[in-house]
Amino acid sequence: MASATAMYHTWLSPLRSLKARQPVHVVKSLAQRRLHKAFLRYHDPENWPMLREALHRMGRADLIGSGKHQLVPSWQPAGTGGRREGRRGPRPGVALTQHTGLPPMPHRKPRR
C-alpha cells in the first residue's frame, strides 16, 4: 500500500529510479471511481445501466448484448439497476450491528 499511496499523492511512479520516474494518471473524481468499480463488478446487475451508458459514450456498444463476447447484456432483470452505489443497505437475513443499522448502545458504568 505504500507504493499506491505514494502514487496517489505525488502522481509519480515510485517503482523507478529518481531520474526515470514517470507520471501516473490518478483518478480522484467520485464518478470515475464508481465507474471503475462498476467495471470490476460487471457481473452485478445493479451496475449494468451505468456500464451500458459508459460503453455507449466510449463508442464500444459492441460490448453490449447477450452474445458470448459481450460484457453487459442489453436487458435488465426486474427489480435491479435502480439503487445507487453506497445506498444499498443491509440485505434481508443479515444480522444487524451498530455498523449496519442498529442505534448505538448507551454506555454503562463499570461495575465495582
Content-based structural category: mainly alpha
Helix amount: 25-40%
Cα distance spanning the termini: 45 Å
User: C-alpha Rg, in Å?
Assistant: 21 Å
Shape: flat
Uncertain segments are none
Regarding quaternary structure, what we see is single chain
Tally of helical segments? 3
Sheet of most strands: none
Series of H and E elements: HHH
What is the total tally of β strands? Answer: 0
How much strand? under 5%
Averaged pLDDT, please?
A: 83
List the helices and strands and how they pair.
Blueprint: H1 2-10, H2 30-40, H3 48-57
Describe the structure.
By secondary structure, this protein is an all-alpha fold. It has helices at residues 2-10, 30-40, 48-57. 3% of the residues are buried.
Write a concise keyword list for the protein shown above.
flat, mainly alpha, 112 residues
Compact description:
It is built from three helices and no strands. The chain has helices at 2-10, 30-40, 48-57.
